[in-house]
Each structure stands twice: as structure tokens, then as C-alpha cells.
Amino acid sequence: MVKLMINNVAGLNSQGKLTAALTKARSYDVILYQETKLRRRKLNEIRAKWGHPDVFMASCQGDFSRRGVLTLFSPNFNVQHLECIEDNEGQYLINLVSHHTTNIMIVNFYGDPESDHNALQTLRRLETAINDLAQQYQIQEKIIGGDFNFVVDDNDTSSGTRRPNTEALWQTMEADLEIYDLAVLFTQIPERTYFRHRMEWTNARYDRFYTSHGLLTGAELKILPRVGDHAPVELKVLETEMGHKPWRIDDGTLDSTNGVESVHAIIGEALREYVDDPEEEVDVVELQHFIDFEMHRPLDVLTRVITLLRNKLKEITRTNQIARRRKEKHLIDNLIHKRAQHTSLNTPESLEELEEARTRLNLHQTQRAATAAENSFVRYARAGERVTNYHFSIQNRNRVARTIRELHVPDNNAVNQLRTINSCEVVNFMSQKFGEIAREDQTVGNTSIGQFLGQTLSDEATKCPAHLTDMLDAELTSEQLKNAVDKMKNKSCPGPLGLSNRLLKIMFPLIQEVLVKAGNALLFSDAPPEIPRWLFHRTVVFIPKPGKSPTSEDSYRGLSMLENIFKMYSTEMASRMARILKLTQDPEQYGFTEGKSCMEPTRTIIDTILHANQNNQPLVVLSTDLYKAFDTISLDHIERSLDFFEFPAKYKNAFMRLARNGTLQFEINGHLSEDFHLNRGTGQGDPKSSFCFNMCVTPLNLYLSRSPEVPRYRTGEVEVGPAYFADDNGCLFDGANVQGILRTVEKIVAYKDVSGLELNPTKCEFLAVNCPQETIDQLCRIGMKQVPRLKHLGVIIEQSGEVLEEHNFRPIIDKMERIARRFATLTSTPLGRALYAKFLLGSLYVHRLQNGLIGDQTMQHMTEALLYMTWTRARMTEDQLGYRVHVAKARVIQPPSYGGLYLPSPGIQNTTLRILWLRKFTEEYSSQGWFKLLTQELERLRRPSITAHMRLGTKEWRKTATKLTERAPYWANVFKAGERIQELTIKQNKLWHMIPIFGSSEGDDTVTMGSLEHDNPMARPIMNSQLAVVGQLFKVNRVGQIIASTLKTRDEVSQEFRGIDQTLWTSMVGLVNSVKRRFRLTIQAEAAIQTRETALVSLVRQYSKGCSAANRLLLRAEREQWPQGEVPPSHRTYLQDGVTQIDKNSFMKAFTSLYKSDLLPAVKWTSLQVLLRTLWTKVKESRNRGGDDRCLNCELKPEHTAHMLFQCNLATGVLQKLATCINHVTDDDIDLTLDAVLFHHFPNCRDKQVKSTLIDVMMITKHVLYRLRFRENIDRHPTVKLVFITVILELQKYILLKTKNGDDTEMFKSINLKLRQEINWTT
């Protein structure tokens, strides 16, 4: 579908409104704005903000304070612009575009609002312009939309003012252009779109869309929520087809029972062809077990199943689409005929026939939309305000589209000149370019891996262990393939056949034996099988690289769209290889390696640069660029690498059968290229690709890390090797050995003869620190580029080693603010926007925060962007967007059970992210560059080692942080975080027995011979023993529990560990007594198990991933500082006003129950506002603005929350009947008290499932009662029956959602049925 929108914006000169308008436009293919009041000089600025040149403007040449139209085309909308006509008075724009093979005229029109005469003159100019255009071009389709400022029917306006001359001309133009008003065509009484000053009594239908006949079928028109005087109007029309439009299954059909049954039937039909005399009663799941695979090749059976399934599903889809469109086209033609007939005859009979035709069309469209609407509701309920890939895609909407409009490439006929390749030529150019890359390079392989490395390094390389051979060679099992299928994401793009991952998950139980046998025949048979083309064929699409010019041929990377069955086999082979690579690849390879991330190599580079600066040592940091790294690896090199690392022959053959035999086609601008054989490359998008690349590049990495020929950076005995992340290499060279650097570069270049990987020196960048000019000049002579700062894995590092906020965080903050403005809509609640803020905004800065430090001002800007996104509402004024806050800033970062929204806090994250480093403070990481440099710095400062700190108390962490501040401020921050996290872990979790003996904060800072600190030489030998925590000084019972009343003697401790001086023992006893006093109540109440782990080690071991554990600690510490306590203040005010008497625990449970519910966010938001006491009522309105505070539903008493939802006559009547219905379907005697309604407090309800259901029903009821305040017919009081009808409809939607999720809905259905019976609703 192509999405268009029209909107009168009443001026776009303020930055706030312009930004909001551009943000809204990114959701559409074409957007038409009227009354923009923009000057012509604004065009370039708007194009820059839009990020694309397809922006068109018409401005009034005289008075800039009025008129003006603006048309924007999305970069993702593939059109070729043929002509653009701008009105000098700023009242229309005509764009003629070619979309695929169709010429479409799109008119953005703003009718003159002043008089009939002026409006007529405007329309005549438009008519002339359209006629002139029609003489030059053949126009197949037309779309005219805008604010017309006149109507053509009395039913379209509340005012008697009409413009007869303008209307008459427009009706003539309608007939001549053969265009149709969609609202009139599809609806009996079209909605009005203009409301003067928001007054309901002055309105008209000025904003309209007209289309030609060819676009009517499948068209959808929608009036959107109004922000200003004019409501936006949205139009969707079917996209004309062109070129290669691959079929793919609509996963929505798999939601229905019929869809799944069709899949089962088709698979059963295919399998029965291979079963001799199958019994009729055999279930389709059992059919696979009756196949004689000795007689029938498993690959043949699999091919037949896939072929028949695809053909039949495709035919079903095609037949349904054709039938639906034919019927709709017939109904539209009939409606047009009846409309023309009524216009001519104007009789009651002709009107009745017109209404009958319109009703039939509406009924058809309703049936067509019913399934789509149902699926849309379920998708929104599941993901609308939850975190999905959709939300991450929103933040990238302004990225370059996949459509390649043009390329600028070197001109072979002119030196240093570029020539332009247009969209028509791009297809052939890119196919030839990447087709050449896919071809085998005959020059590769002249040098073997052994020759490249030499004998010594070849022998040192770790090979595949013999004990893992059986794992590699084992045949595939059903369990392994099922695990691979379960990991597949449902939303991943399917391969060329169009069969989705979700379909494969449905198919798998029916054909798992076929898949296992086919896989084993394919991979592990002695003789190479005949391989079906469909299984190995792939489509390669081109994805633009972020931040690269869209006109450069090298700004795109190919991504392989493979069949999911192939990916299933590839996933299992990749998982086996991954276990070997952990042993064989270079330890400094961080990419695609479990337990490693991008923060370590970046830290190594930063620390090395800092070290070189501080010690005045010459350093060259070289960032290498391997041309099309994943696409150019030789297949022979993959096989030779498997041999070199001594993978068993059986596994090697299986792996190479997957690597070879592939064919591919390039999809460019909707066109498919010819077939190419895949003769090199790992194929990005293939599950085994990343592991295969790591294996193939390991010989080069080993050479750079271990060869004595490489001038690696050294400091004393410490040598810092390169840091690798897949194909992003950061080489750290001794800047004083330029000849060694040049020889190393030559060696990297020579690796092409081994692997096919080509280093392009002209694309390499280097950072020089303390290097002589001669060194820099020699590197520049071979084409390398010296840079003042280096970007490594997204972090910009200065020559000084600093990670400046200006270059790393300021752009992130700007992006956060842009995304925040994009979500300033009325359609999402703060509940949903808090999630968006957490995952869309919070994800932007986390990576850089892992390796950088931020100041208070930057932290404040980030926090403001997060808050702005959460609270902003679409209440536009000329200068700004207003917003209202419902939760205090201090509380909004807290978990839901404390009345917060769990909004990220950059300040807290600045500490919690450091736990990622604390996990790496073990000997396992001692070979990494950052570990070596930090160890050296700690030795220089005479501080304990990295690993020793994990056994020490907070005082030692604090001392180390203080000493690191001057030379290593980042690590000082890490050690401060370690101190804070350990302190809170002990305090909040009452881990008295895990308090470190040495370096504890108990006691003073005076260092004596009895001090349990690192500065005391008497204590150091014991620090290195196994004696670490206070709990080890106590005796234990038979089950290992500490006997807190019985301390071991000095002799017992000395015998168990090592001799302890009496002075130290006295200090230990003093520490124990201090701990016992501090944790007296905990020691008396709880038994503790003896351990030698410190509290910090226990925390890191228990939570092996993420930062949530540390985050909880710091959030709790924040709450403990609140003078009013942890409970939201609304509980205190409710108590003071006598609304409730429930205790704080019950009150806070209401928050938890709310967040656990699957109800729509809008429904939950009403209940959350009740709990927070921020629900907008007439009482609050009268306090702020004055006026009547009486209830809108009864007009008897003041409308506060308790009255509106419980005490009002309407609420009382609803709740009484609702209680009757509930007690009819439950065994418990449920009383809908005020506490139950407002605070979800059901003390008599014992069953958790029943209680959860009651809470959901109450939240729906509260939401309905509250939303009735905003009804259109405000003068009429709502009835109990109206409330029940609305509740029933909401319950039906919720039942649908829970059914789709596979949840139990019996109680909901019973309550819903009883509600229907209560009001005698049988339809």
C-alpha cells in the first residue's frame, strides 16, 4: 500500500511545529501540507532536515504570512519525478511522478479562503496547469488532496455560506478528470474535518482526497485525530506492481485454525505420495514414519513437500486476492453508475438504489477489513507499547532507502572525474560489480597458510582437540534441528520461496524425520548427493551502510536471503564450529565470541593511547580496512583453514557442502539479476558466516599477535597486541619502528594470496602519538590517511586518548531529542513511551557510556530527553509542544511496584554499567591488552592486583580509585563503582558473613601493624591465602551453617590457612564484633551458610549477564533517601482524605498487578492514574481553571476519583450488576468495595487466577467509566446499559488477545456471557 496524508498545519515557521511536522511525515510515502506560511528560502533547510531532496514547496510571493503548500516524498517511496508545477500564489503544487510503470499526478491544493471570486481564480489556474501537463504527458492515475476551503454539498457544512461559482467549476473538473471523492463514495455521511477554533457548531468538510478510477479498488480513507482546527486525512491506495515482487506467505493466515489445517492437509497430501497404502486414519504427524527412505531419497521427499506447499499456498493467496478485487471493482463500478444515475434523476427510487450500492460496497470492505483489523488489534496489543523490532525501525526511518536512485562512479574516460549512473543503469552496474565479486579469484591459494605463518607459528597454533571429534562428526538429530528452528525469529525475512520461519515452526513436527534424514544425507553421506537448487539458492539485497553516501558504490553491503531450512542446517554446523573456535582463534578476537563484547578492544586501544601519551612513547594505531571482507574469502581458503586447524574430514566435507553449491541472484530496485554461482564469500545472513570468517582470518590474527616480525607496542615487559572485532582490526604498533610497520602492512596485503581478503591501504586510517614526522610521511606515502581522532566500533577516540563528550555524546543527545519528538503523539500512553525511551533512547548511549565518562551537564541533557519522550503530548502551539508530568522525576526511574515507570537513569547507569568490567576481573582475561595495562598501573601505584580486589573490602577499592584518578580517570570510576556496588550488596542483602576481612570499611583509616589493609606488610601474605570473609572465622554445624555464637580460635584459623600474628588476630576479632553489632538482628533471625566468596564475587557470579542486579541496588538506595518513604505519596493522601484504609503493602501490590496484566496500555494507564491520583477530574479542573466541579455523568456531586468510579449513581448501578455477574461465575463471595474498585484489593479472593481476572475486569470497567466523560453527546447522561455494552466490547477484544496468546479465557467468557444476559443483549 502507498500511504498519503493531507493536513492544514496553520503555519510551520516555528522550529517546534516544523520538527513535529517532519516527524509525522516519516510515517507516510507522500504527505501534503497546506497553509504552511513558509518562505521560499526555507526549502534547503527543510530538505536538509528531511535528509532527502524530494521536498517541494509553493509560497505566496507577496504575503508570506498566509497560504503555502509543502509536499514531501519519502526516501523509501520509489518514484521518478517527471515534472513539478508550483503556483506563484502558493496555493497548489502539481507533482507528476513515474511509479514503476505508471505516471501519477499528485496535486497538493489549498483553496483560497477569502471569497468566491478568489477561490474561482485559484481553481482556474489549477485547471490550466493540469491541462497543460496532460498535453505533455500521458497521465494514468490522479490523486488530488488538500484543504479546498469550499464544499459541494449542504451536508458537508454547518454554515450556510457557499461559493457557487467555484463549486460549479470544480464539479466540471471532477467530471473532466474522472476523479472521485472517496469519502462521498464510500460513506453515507462523510465526517467533517474542519472545526473553527475547536467549536463543534462551526464545522465543514474542507479537507478531501480525490482519486482516479484505477486507484479506487483497495483504497482506504481515514480521518485522524485533530490537533489544530483541521483533522488530518489519511489515504491508502494499492501499489502498482512492477519488476520482481516476490510472493511470501502472509503469516496472518497462520493465526486461524483454517490456515493451520490447510498447511497440515497439503503436507499430508505430499507425504502420502511416498507411503504405500497408507491407512486413512493415520494422522498427518505419523505419516513421515511410514515412508521407506531406502526407496525414496529424503531430499526428494523434502523437495516435493516444499514445492507442493508453496504452489498451493501461492494459488490460494492469488485466488483469494483476485476474487476479492474483482468483487470490489464490480461494486465500485456499480456505485459510480448509481451515483451518476441519481445525480441525473434525483428521485427517491434512485436515492434508494444509490444507498443500496453504497451499503453493499461498505459491507464488502468491512468483511475485508475485519480480519485485518482483528490482526491489527492483536499486533498492537502484543507489541503496540511493548519493545519490538518495529520500534527500533522507527528510529531509522530517515535512513537511506534500499532503493538506489543513482550512483557516482569513476569515469574511465576522465582522470579523477565521476560519472552518474541513473536508476535504470544501476541494476546492471551493481549486478556486474557484485557478480564479479562472487566469482572465484584464480590468484588465491598460491601461498598456503603454513607458508604464510612459517613453521614456528604454525606449530604454535591451537588445533581442534581430538576429544571433540565425535561431537563434530555426529549426525544431526531431531532435537538439534528443533533447537535451531526455535531460535529463528518469526519476523525475519524469508528466502526466495517466501516461506516464513513461523510456517517452518508449524511444519516441523509433521516433517521432522524427513528433515533429519535429508540433512544427514546432504551433509554426512559418503557420496555427494544431488543437491536441489531451491535449498541453496539465495537472493542478495543491498543494505546501505549507516553514515555513508547513498551515491557511492561501496556504501552498500549485500545481505543474503536464504531458505530457512538451509539456515536450520547451517545453524547446527555453526554451533559446532563455535565450540572449536573458542580454543583455536586468537584470544584478542572479540567479534562473534561468547563472553566477549566490543567494549574490551575499544578499552585496550584507549588505554594504550593514554599510556603512550603519559610516558612519551611513540605509538601508531592502525585501523585496517579489508575490502568486502565477508564477500571475498575464497572457498578453497575455507577448506584449507578447516584442514589447518585439523577439523575432522567428515565435518569438513559436511561444512564445505554447505559452503559450496550455492547460487544467488541480486535484487536491485525491484529487479532480479541473472543467476550467479557462489564461488567465494561466507554470505552475510548465513548463520555460519561469522564463525567461518573468524576461522579464516585467524591465521592473519595469529601472525599479528605472535610473530616477532611485527613491531607491537611494548611497555617494559608488557606487550599489547592488536584488538580484533571481526574485520575491524585495531593494530597497536611501536611508532619508532616505521620499517617494521611497513613490512607488517605488506604482510597483511600478502594475505590476499592466502585467503582472498584484500587490504586497501588507501582506506586505512592511523593515529600517530609522539611519532616523528618522518614516520607519518612514510605511512602517508603508501596511501594511508592520518587522522586527528579515530573512530573504533562507534567510539571516537582523540589523539590524547580522551573520549570527549562533544564528539561522542552530543550527537547521541541530538538524536535522542529527535526521536523523542517523533513519539510526541496522542496515541501512545506514558506507559508505552517509557518503554520506547528505555529501549530506543537508552540503547543509543549505552555502548559509548561503557567506555566513556560523562559530566553532570551531559547527564542532565540525556535525562531531559528521556523525560521529554515519556511525558510529551501532541498539544502543539506556535512555539512549542506542551507536556504534563504524572510521576515525579525521582520516582519515574523506579520499578512499577513503587509507582515508577522504570525509565533509564543515565546517572545510575554510569555506575551500574561498570559491573560488566567487574565480571572480567579474573585471570581468564589476563591476556587482554586492557588487563595488562591496568595491572601495570596498579603495580606502579603499589596497589593490589585486579583479581585480588575481588577479595577485598570497600576501603581498598576506594583507595585504588583515589590513586587512579589522575592517570586513569576511567578506571577510577570503575573502582568507585565497585566500592559502591559492594557496599550496597552487603547492606541491602544483609550479607554480613560475606564482608571481606581485609579492606573492610569497619574501623578507622590509620594504618598500623594490626591493620587489615594492603598497606600493612604483615597482612599481605594472609590476603593471598584462602581466608577472605568474616564468615570463615566462625565455626559451622554439620550442614555448613555458621554458628554465630562460636568464633574459631587463632590457632584453628592459623592451622586452616596460615600463621596469623596476634596483632592481626586482635583486629579480626574487633572486626567480627563490629559486624555482629551492625547486623545483630539479621544474625539472630537467619542462619547463614559459610562461604569464602565475598559479597561482590557472589553478586557477579549469580548474575552473569546484564546490569539489572546493580541497577536494583542503586534504585533501592535512592528510595531509602526519600523522606516520605518508598510508598507513592498518593497512598498517604488517600489515607488522609479517608478514601481508604488499606496498608502500604496492599497499595503497592496494586501497581504490580497492573503491570502484570496483558490489557492494552491505554486501559492500564487509566488505572495507573487512579493509583497515582493524577486522574483528571472536574474537581481538579475547577481548582486550576475555575468553573463547575460537578460530575459529568450525574451532575449531582463534585467529580473526584472516588465519586466518578464508585459513588456516582452510574458507577453504583454498574458495579452492583457487575458484582452479581461475577459472583454468578465464581465460588468466592466477591464484594466490589471501594478498595476493590480503585486499588484491586480483594481480601476474600483466594484463587490467584480468579483474582487476576477480577483485576482485569475492574480496570476495563474503570477505563470505560472514565472515557465516557469525553463522549460527543455530553448533554445526555450515559446509562448502565451503555457502560455494559462498552465493557462487553472491550472484554471481547481482550478475550481475542488472550486466545491468540494461548491463555485460559473461560472465566472471561463466562463473565462476558453473564453481562450480555444482564442487559438482554443477544446479538
Give an overview of the whole structure.
The protein has 1323 residues and is of the alpha+beta class. 49% of the residues lie in helices and 12% in strands. It contains 52 helices and 36 strands. A six-stranded mixed β-sheet has the order 3-4-2-1-14-13, with helices on one face. It has a six-stranded mixed β-sheet with strand order 5-6-7-8-12-9. Strands 17, 18, 21, 22 and 23 form a five-stranded mixed β-sheet that branches. A hairpin with a 2-residue loop joins β24 (713-715) and β25. α9 crosses α51 and α48 packs across α51. The radius of gyration is 36 Å and the shape is globular. Mean pLDDT is 86; it is low at 376-384, 386-400 and 874-883.
Features of this protein?
single chain; 1323 residues; alpha+beta; 6-stranded mixed beta sheet
Short account of what is shown:
With 1323 residues, this protein is α+β, with helices and mostly antiparallel strands.
Percentage of residues in helical conformation: 40-55%
| DSSP E strands, number | 36
How many helical elements? 52
Q: Whole-number average pLDDT?
A: 86
Major sheet: order of its strands? 3-4-2-1-14-13
First-to-last CA distance: 34 Å
Shape: globular
Secondary-structure class: alpha+beta
What fraction of residues sit in β-strands?
A: 5-15%
What is the strand and helix layout of this fold?
Elements: E1 2-8, H1 15-25, E2 30-34, H2 43-50, E3 55-58, E4 69-73, E5 80-86, E6 92-99, E7 102-110, H3 116-136, E8 141-147, H4 164-177, E9 179-181, H5 182-186, E10 194-195, E11 203-204, E12 207-212, E13 220-223, E14 233-237, H6 257-272, H7 284-287, H8 298-345, H9 348-383, H10 389-394, E15 407-410, E16 418-421, H11 423-438, H12 449-460, H13 469-473, H14 478-486, H15 501-524, H16 533-536, E17 537-544, E18 556-562, H17 564-584, H18 599-614, E19 619-623, E20 626-627, H19 629-632, H20 635-644, H21 649-659, E21 663-668, E22 671-672, E23 676-677, H22 689-706, E24 713-715, E25 718-720, E26 723-725, E27 728-734, H23 738-750, H24 752-755, E28 758-759, E29 765-769, H25 773-781, E30 785-786, E31 789-792, E32 795-798, H26 805-808, H27 810-822, H28 830-851, H29 856-871, E33 872-876, E34 881-883, H30 889-892, H31 906-912, H32 915-918, H33 929-940, H34 946-949, H35 954-964, H36 969-989, H37 1020-1023, E35 1034-1036, E36 1042-1047, H38 1050-1056, H39 1062-1078, H40 1080-1085, H41 1095-1102, H42 1108-1120, H43 1129-1136, H44 1144-1156, ...
Parallel strand pairs: 1-2, 7-8, 17-21, 29-30
Antiparallel strand pairs: 1-14, 2-4, 3-4, 5-6, 6-7, 8-12, 9-12, 10-11, 13-14, 15-16, 17-18, 19-27, 19-29, 20-28, 21-22, 21-23, 24-25, 26-27, 31-32, 33-34, 35-36
Helix pairs in contact: 3-4, 6-8, 6-15, 8-9, 8-15, 9-51, 12-22, 14-15, 14-17, 17-22, 18-33, 20-21, 27-28, 27-29, 28-29, 31-42, 35-36, 36-42, 44-45, 45-50, 47-48, 48-51, 48-52, 50-51, 51-52
